[in-house]
Design brief:
alpha/beta; eight-stranded mixed β-sheet; eight-stranded parallel β-sheet; 14 helices
Amino acid sequence: MSSTRTLIRGGLVITAADETHADVLIEDGRIAALAAHGTAAAESWTADRTIDATGKYVIPGGVDAHTHMELPFGGTFASDTFETGTRAAAWGGTTTIVDFAVQTAGQALRAGLDAWYAKADGVCAIDYAFHMILSDVNESTLKEMDLLVEEGITSFKLFMAYPGVFYSDDGQILRAMQRSSANGGLIMMHAENGIAIDVLVEQALARGETDPRHHGEVRKVLLEAEATHRAIQLARVAGAPLYVVHVSAEEAVAELAAARDRGLPVFGETCPQYLFLSADNLAEPDFEGAKYVCSTPLRPREHQAALWRGLRTNDLQVVSTDHCPFCFSGQKELGRGDFSKIPNGLPGVENRMDLLHQAVLDGRLTRRRWIEVACATPARMFGLYPKKGTIAPGADADVVIYDPHAEQTLSAAAHHMNVDYSAYEGKTVTGQVETVLSRGEVVIDRRTYTGHAGHGVYTPRSTCQYLN
């Protein structure tokens, strides 16, 4: 195969570590070199393709470490396939997703993992990896965890919520944590007290409180904070690291901060919906609130300040999307008259990088912190760095040319996710993806999709790089 070289000239290269006006040379799908713009070294480079990035940012492709393509939930399936979902991700400047393979209770982890390999194989537009959801912790699945870590599936998600579906009790959680402590895996936790929540759901429905807003009201902040606290203590007992997913509440951030202040290997993720939306959306009339039903739920607006502060102080390290879209028509509508039957999840894989850039303009994050929480830290957390998440010699050439001045209005009409509404309908943001390279191949060319299904490859992961 002949060598192909691409040169990106004149842009501001932004990584988690620094910002430099540099030209970037790409060869055979990897970053070959960087040199200051206008220097003799940079001027001497030749390439098959030159991309002019003058006045633009050159940033690493986003790493979204929490997506659910084709997830079965509540009698239906997430509306994005691996094909449509990864294409939408590319449009939004994300070049790697880590999705969740699901163990069916009573079956082996291997059966669930193989099912997800089959769903994604040959159809993804960008690179992908997997976490494993444990629905049934027992002696044989504990043994399988060791084998999966060796195979590059180095993180395992457990649920303190959804009794009868994904729920694990404290004993099962402790056993899985002990196993991960020994094998180097990372436990990811959905921290909500699902047993107590189910009582409150039943009581609310009995009172005739059936609208979407009650979904948020029964999933109490205190039950997220309590579960977060309990997960941290179980991890301490097991001597294991812990990653808490989709943190939404100030009190839960406080639990993480307290653990981190003690030097514990405890990490937290939040999502754009908690940073930009609130319980007000759940209360929208005419069942419109159903569009915003996800778990953990959207919180009253006053929680947002604590989440932004957590991102600045590094008590929260990652912003992922928990992308799990269900169409309003025919899917969210399953819960008319009973909020507990609304499929849980929001579309967001295409919007994350742009929303966080808007946060930079709003003074909530620095540019480097934007890249840190969206690219570098998720790559490090889940064993993909420095192949992913940075622009440095040897890294995969997953590169986004980002126009920081372009204005766009987010809408269902304009997005590429396979879902009939936008959670951010009508929101205007400044900043837009212009061109995207995945392993050196242009998949978005000046706002035109040039990628193809099957370009994306499965990417095995090493263990969490914050624990070595």
